[in-house]
Design brief:
By secondary structure, the chain is of the alpha/beta class. The chain has two domains: 145 residues, 3-Layer(aba) Sandwich (Rossmann fold), CATH 3.40.50.1860; 106 residues, 3-Layer(aba) Sandwich (Rossmann fold), CATH 3.40.50. 43% of the residues lie in helices and 16% in strands. The strands form two sheets. A six-stranded parallel β-sheet has the order 4-3-1-2-9-10, with helices on both faces. It has a four-stranded parallel β-sheet with strand order 6-5-7-8, with helices on both faces. Helix 1 links the parallel strand 1 and strand 2.
Length: 270
């Protein structure tokens, strides 16, 4: 496989852009192709088979049109629902995501950890097994954040509606006196400041984007695929009907240079 081939990254929407940004910082010499399946967001309310089908369509697109050398599933729900099957289908290295339970367990002094995630992630057997591994002295309190992904997809990241919904989801965790919050969905990195402000900066908020970027670098080294070539591609595809999605994406990525491409939808015929 050619080292110059790009890394493919996908998520149900814009949440994985936080992971994309971390990978770009960690690996500035790599071409990155990102797919935001926003038309089908959120994945957290969908059946595993539906998520797997969406993942296969997207990965096939990335391989056919960009010959990706490595895949990043920048979505906790899609990782839990589909990574095992995707690894059996495709021969390229695949890096997934999971809520940062281990670092949260280590960071918690009071041994009380709150987890914000989608219903799909919290109900998955992969998440249950992960929780069982670290459920010793630590108490984990899970909070499914229904409707939050949809609001974040609209790009109004500090709107009154989002703040109200985040506060509603944080109150049960506040009452449990947690000292660590795990952001168990890539979309939730965009409400990190709201979480910190709610707790008056007295909790540790943990996300997994940096850890994923490091794991991507490890996999590239393992398969001798790391690239430092001059011809770098950086493209973001989205099927979002939101006409402001281009502006939303560029506001999130700030100075990072990416070409934005609207792609009406991925389906089995394309």
């Amino acid at each position: 496989m050619n080292k110059s081939f790009p890394i493919g990254i996908f998520d149900s929407g814009i949440g994985g852009l936080s992971v994309l940004s971390k990978i770009q910082s960690q690996l500035p010499g790599e071409s990155l192709i990102y797919v935001a399946d926003s038309l089908n967001a959120p994945y957290g309310t969908k059946d595993n088979l539906i998520i797997l089908r969406r993942a296969i369509v997207i990965v096939d697109f990335l391989i056919k049109h960009h010959q990706i050398k490595l895949l990043v599933i920048a979505c906790n729900t899609a990782t839990a629902a589909a990574i095992k099957e995707l690894r059996s289908i495709y021969s390229i290295p695949i890096v997934g995501m999971e809520p940062a339970i281990k670092p949260a367990n280590e960071a918690s002094v009071l041994k009380k950890v709150g987890i914000l995630a989608t219903e799909g992630t919290l109900k998955s057997s992969k998440f249950s097994a992960l929780l069982d591994t670290y459920s010793g002295d630590t108490q984990f309190y899970t909070q499914p954040c229904v409707g939050l992904v949809e609001l974040i997809e609209q790009g109004h990241l500090e709107s009154k509606e989002i703040i109200t919904l985040v506060h509603k989801n944080l109150m049960p965790l506040y009452e449990k006196n947690v000292d660590v919050i795990v952001l168990g969905c890539t979309h939730f990195i965009f409400i990190k400041n709201i979480v910190e402000d709610f707790f008056d900066k007295k909790v540790t908020v943990i996300e997994t984007g940096s850890a994923v970027a490091i794991q991507v670098q490890r996999k590239l080294n393992e398969f001798s695929l790391e690239n430092n070539g001059p011809n770098i591609q950086r493209i973001i595809y989205s099927n979002s009907p939101n006409e402001n999605m281009d502006k939303i994406i560029h506001s999130i990525l700030a100075a990072n240079k990416f070409e934005y491409v609207f792609y009406s939808n991925w389906n089995e015929e394309q």
